[in-house]
Write a structure and sequence with these properties.
The complex is a heterotrimer of chains A (about 300), B (about 270) and C (about 400).
Chain A (H helix, E strand, L loop, with lengths): L2 H31 L3 H22 L4 H25 L4 H22 L9 H6 L19 H4 L5 H18 L1 H9 L1 H6 L4 H23 L1 H16 L5 H29 L8 H19 L13
Helix pairs in contact in A: 1-2, 1-7, 1-10, 1-11, 1-12, 2-3, 2-4, 2-10, 2-11, 3-4, 3-10, 7-10, 10-11, 11-12, 11-13, 12-13
Chain B lengths: L20 E10 L2 E11 L4 E5 L6 H8 L7 E6 L2 E2 L7 E4 L13 H6 L3 H4 L7 H13 L15 H14 L4 E5 L7 H16 L3 E5 L6 H4 L2 E6 L1 E7 H4 L2 H8 L5 H11 L1
Parallel strand pairs in B: 3-8, 3-9, 6-7, 7-8
Antiparallel strand pairs in B: 1-2, 1-4, 4-5, 9-10
Helix pairs in contact in B: 4-5, 5-6
Chain C lengths: L1 H5 L5 H26 L5 H7 L1 H14 L7 H25 L4 H24 L11 H4 L7 H30 L1 H6 L4 H19 L8 H13 L5 H25 L5 H19 L5 H25 L7 H9 L11 H22 L4 H4 L14 H11 L8
Helix pairs in contact in C: 2-8, 2-10, 2-11, 2-12, 3-5, 3-6, 4-5, 4-6, 5-6, 5-10, 8-10, 11-12, 11-13, 12-13, 14-15, 14-16, 16-18
Classes of the chains: A mainly alpha (about 300), B alpha/beta (about 270), C mainly alpha (about 400).
Chain lengths: ~300, ~270, ~400
């Protein structure tokens, strides 16, 4: 495909997809190891009510209030889950189920009660995003990448997602050592002075930020796939956390690229006319990768002897 | 017949600074039943102390509260005469082996390097001298050849020795170990006790939560008997007697067993 | 309008939907209780999301064979098949790989949903207007429901409930004590699978009313709510069913009474209302009761510790202890015991000694097991026994018992 076609139509969605996948996969590694994978599930469901409330408060569809609203909803959800778990002595899975379904239901109800017909805000969009529409109309070809005027017309989602990715990478790099230590042995981590509760909350907040930024492009359910599938697949490939992170980034990029390409061109190869949902296809591809590693991965089973109680 | 209550606690005049670890009025409760109730403990510097008591007597809970891992309902902890937070660098902790998931993707050497966390900080590079130190710690517990193994491939005893090596890397003055001999093979038990004795010889203080009454007199010079409340504390000769054992274990230890042990104790 | 709705006066369809929602709520509440007690509540989230590709494939198949594609029975059959495949994937992942159940749930849930969305977009391109209604399965939609569909839902709800009643004995056994159940020769694996089958049935029946994203709420919230009120397993099941049924009924009626009140979210919010009330106000496990109990307990611990310190002439380390002692008139602000305080302290110390005797004497083993540092000795021993123990201790007499 020529640059004139690829750069304006496919370059930005592809980059956004890759950035989103990597930004989610990095904290996802720790969530999976901490048995908190479903926190990602909860966060992505409560993004909708957060956005709706932000819209009701500001009366406009603008990016930053919505990001704030969604991040705020995620933090509230996490606090509520923790509170219900402790106060009611309820197992975490059930506590999560209570909180995120209720908040999601509240979001849907608010949305139905509000006149959003004039703006682009609906449940379907929230659920499966709209990656394909994030095109770069000002681009004419590869030369536009160096053209300041054309660059000014980039969809805002691209720099936003890139910024989020930088933040996630910085967090992971800076707190790598305490994250690894407290994920492996929380009691010991506390005795060397790591504030494990605070660190755990920071990890969830970073995951929430990644989810909110990615949400806009790919929708909330697909975000869950990005959190869990690449790290889970990476887990089957290696017994070393450093390598696992590398594999998960690789798998995230692979599923983003293959998913986007298959969604756009797959139907054409099969003789159909129109493309299918790129976000859905990215999730499907991450599932295919997970399935392959679960069957063939060198480290797919639990290592060594099971822990004796 | 028994005069245990009167020797509880310490006189108000004692100076906490003389002890490696001092606990005063510690009560910890899970829900409505205290696991540890109003316990005082004073650990002598340079001694090897065993914390013993029946299952569920609050041994591990007391250790965790002393380390700030669980939050007590009341009580104070001082380490070398100062609040815990200021003395963290001088404490090394060996948790129960079963408290972590050994399927975690990491190698033996990486676990030992975790002991250098305070030295390395957030971003300090792991240099060859750090590696050498970690290897030396592994050597001391007889695990040098396992440095590059994945931790899931180790046996229970080997896992315990890796945890001990990690605590050695901390270069502490006070070592707190939670059931290090539980479910390990004889060779490991021998290796661990050898390391602990060498720590003691180097002037370090060692506190061990212990469950095997038969080895107390061989391994330790001080004991602390607990059953929710403190039962007795002191040198093995003073505090590890048929009476104190009966008081700590009550009906749970058959009389014959107590007799046998008291013969060992003398 | 609302009273009409509550009394089922809003026409056949709305009434049938309300009946269907009630039956669904009861079924979901009861099934969810078994799931909750097995600590596998969120497995239902994976099952419900996994229905989407099945719905879409069933639609495409029916269209391919010249049908209308919107036949509810056909769509529900399709959803059941793909939910079952999702469940098998989930079980396979947790059993044969190192993944924990949470990661397996998350991956099955998101991948199946992603595939479903791909198929939805395929359907959208198949022909204009044809896909109408499939999005309704995401969040449920009862508006403009066909009479035949309402009947399907009511029958589905009733038959699921009948199946649950039929299976409740073996499921109860497995949920509460799988090892005992296995020892009695029950096929635990198969009963577990049957339990999941019921979860799937509830999900499938609920698709049209509540939608696949929110159906999990009906399986989780009522059991959790019920758990606050009772410690007895059979009552949790019963209460779970009642809360679920009430939520379904009230929610459906409320949503029929006014426009812009989508049925699924309203049912979920009603059940959450029940949950919130229970969380705060339930007598034993509720938050309010727990807070009161904690403060009372903390006061007792501090008072007791303070008295023992007074009796042994030790300093009082905690400020709270001293404040409680002075407020009770047992000590002065400088930590010196008053006369009343001295008497109480002596009694506390004597009780401690009595406990020591009890706990080292095998004949009192049952009483000794009740020791928690706080319990009054009079509650475990008779007066005569106390006198007997005092005799053993010796020392000063005349301490008030």
């Amino acid at each position: 495909m020529s640059g004139e076609e690829f750069v304006p139509l496919s370059l930005t969605p592809l980059l956004i997809g890759i950035f989103a996948a990597v930004a989610c996969a990095l904290p996802g590694n720790f969530l999976v190891l901490r048995r908190q994978a479903l926190i990602g599930d909860a966060i992505s469901h409560v993004v909708l009510p957060g956005i709706v409330v932000a819209f009701l408060l500001t009366g406009a569809i603008s990016a930053w209030p919505m990001m704030l609203g969604a991040a705020g909803a995620a933090v509230i959800a996490v606090i509520l889950i923790e509170a219900i778990r402790r106060l009611g002595k309820i197992e975490p899975g059930a506590a999560m189920g209570v909180v995120f379904t209720t908040m999601f239901a509240g979001g849907v109800l608010l949305l139905e009660q509000t006149d959003t017909s004039t703006v682009h805000l609906d449940v379907e969009h929230a659920l499966y995003g709209n990656l394909e529409s994030l095109i770069w109309l000002d681009a004419t070809g590869w030369s536009s990448v160096l053209d300041l005027e054309a660059l000014a017309g980039l969809p805002v989602e691209l720099p936003r997602m890139a910024l989020t990715l930088v933040l996630v990478i910085a967090f992971t790099w800076l707190f790598w050592r305490p994250l690894k230590l407290s994920t492996f042995d929380e009691g010991f981590a506390r005795t060397v002075g790591i504030r494990t509760n605070l660190l755990g909350l920071a990890l969830v907040v970073i995951a929430a930020i990644a989810a909110v930024a990615a949400f806009d492009a790919v929708g909330s359910i697909i975000v869950i796939a990005m959190f869990i599938c690449p790290p889970a697949a990476a887990r089957m490939m290696t017994n070393q956390l450093e390598h696992q992170i590398g594999w998960s980034v690789g798998f995230a990029i692979a599923s983003a690229v293959s998913g986007y390409v298959l969604a756009g061109y797959g139907p054409l190869w099969l003789g159909a006319q129109d493309a299918v949902s790129a976000a859905g296809m990215i999730a499907t591809m991450s599932g295919v990768i997970l399935a392959l590693t679960a069957v063939f991965g060198p480290c797919r089973t639990r290592a060594g002897a099971p822990v004796q109680a | 017949m028994l005069d245990l209550v009167s020797n509880q606690g310490t006189s108000p005049t004692d100076t906490l600074g003389d002890s490696s670890l001092a606990i005063r009025g510690l009560t910890v409760s899970y829900g409505q039943k205290p696991a540890v109730f109003s316990v005082d403990m004073t650990v002598q510097p340079g001694a090897m102390t065993a914390i013993i008591g029946p299952n569920g007597a609050g041994k591990s809970t007391m250790l965790k509260a002393a380390l700030g891992i669980v939050k007590p309902l009341s009580g104070q902890v001082t380490v070398f005469g100062e609040p815990l937070e200021q003395q963290r660098a001088r404490i090394a902790y060996v948790p129960q082996r079963a408290s972590v998931d050994w399927d975690f993707p990491t190698r033996v050497i990486d676990v030992v390097l975790m002991g250098l966390y305070r030295e390395l900080g957030l971003l300090g590079r792991v240099r060859s001298r750090h590696k050498a130190k970690a290897m030396d710690c592994l050597h001391r517990v007889g695990m040098r050849d396992f440095a590059d193994r994945q931790i899931g491939q180790l046996s229970g005893g080997q896992q315990q020795r890796v945890f001990l090596a990690r605590s050695l890397a901390q270069d502490a003055d006070l070592y707190l170990l939670d059931e290090p001999f539980a479910g390990v093979d004889a060779a490991t038990e021998k290796a661990i006790i050898g390391v602990l004795k060498s720590l003691k010889d180097a002037g370090k203080t060692v506190v061990v939560v212990h469950h095997d009454l038969a080895t107390v007199t061989d391994y330790f010079d001080h004991v602390f008997l607990i059953n929710t409340r403190k039962v007795a504390e002191g040198s093995v000769a003073e505090a590890f007697t048929a009476d104190t054992l009966q008081a700590a274990y009550g009906g749970r230890l058959a009389t014959a067993q107590v007799d046998q042990l008291s013969r060992v104790v003398g | 309008m609302l009273s009409d709705a509550l009394l089922l006066q809003l026409g056949y369809n709305a009434s049938l939907v309300a009946i269907g929602a009630t039956l669904l709520g009861v079924s979901a509440g009861v099934t969810g209780t078994f799931l909750f007690l097995r600590k596998r509540a969120l497995v239902s989230d994976a099952i419900s999301h996994a229905t989407l590709p099945g719905v879409c494939l069933a639609f495409m198949l029916m269209v391919a064979f010249g049908g209308d594609g919107r036949n509810l029975v056909g769509l529900l059959l399709g959803s059941a098949v793909s939910a079952w495949i999702g469940l098998l994937c989930l079980n396979w992942l947790t059993r044969n790989t190192r993944l924990a159940e949470d990661a397996a749930i998350g991956s099955v849930l998101s991948v199946f949903f992603g595939l479903g969305i791909v198929l939805l977009t395929v359907i959208q391109t198949m022909g204009v207007g044809r896909q109408a209604g499939l999005e309704g399965f995401l969040l449920g939609s009862t508006a403009g429901m066909l009479w035949a569909d309402a009947v399907v839902i009511a029958i589905g709800g009733a038959s699921t409930l009948a199946l649950i009643l039929l299976m409740r004995r073996p499921m109860t056994l497995v949920a509460f004590d799988p090892e005992y159940a296995a020892a009695r020769g029950l096929p635990v694996d198969r009963i577990d699978l049957a339990m999941m089958g019921l979860v799937m049935a509830v999900t499938v029946v609920g698709l049209k009313i509540v939608g696949l994203i929110l159906i999990v709420a009906l399986l989780i919230i009522p059991p959790v709510t019920a758990r606050f009120w009772t410690e007895r397993s059979d009552r949790v099941v019963l209460l779970g069913g009642i809360v679920g049924g009430l939520s379904g009924y009230l929610g459906a009626a409320l949503s029929a009474s006014a426009p812009n009140l989508p049925t699924g979210p309203i049912i979920v919010l009603v059940s959450f209302g029940f949950f919130a009330i229970s969380l705060f106000l339930a007598p034993n496990r509720g938050v309010l009761a727990a807070i009161l109990r904690h403060f009372r307990f903390q006061r007792r611990v501090h008072l007791r510790q303070g008295l023992l310190a007074l009796a042994q002439g030790q300093p009082i380390y905690e400020r709270l202890t001293l404040r409680l002692l002075t407020r009770a008139g047992l000590a002065r602000a400088d930590g010196v015991a008053t006369e009343a305080g001295k008497a109480r302290a002596a009694k506390a110390l004597r009780d401690e000694k009595r406990w020591e005797v009890i706990r080292s004497d095998q004949t009192h083993e049952a009483a000794a097991a009740l020791y928690d540092g706080l319990r009054d000795i009079e509650t475990v021993l008779t007066k005569d026994q106390i006198v007997e123990i005092d005799h053993q201790i010796g020392g000063p007499q005349g301490v008030p018992a």
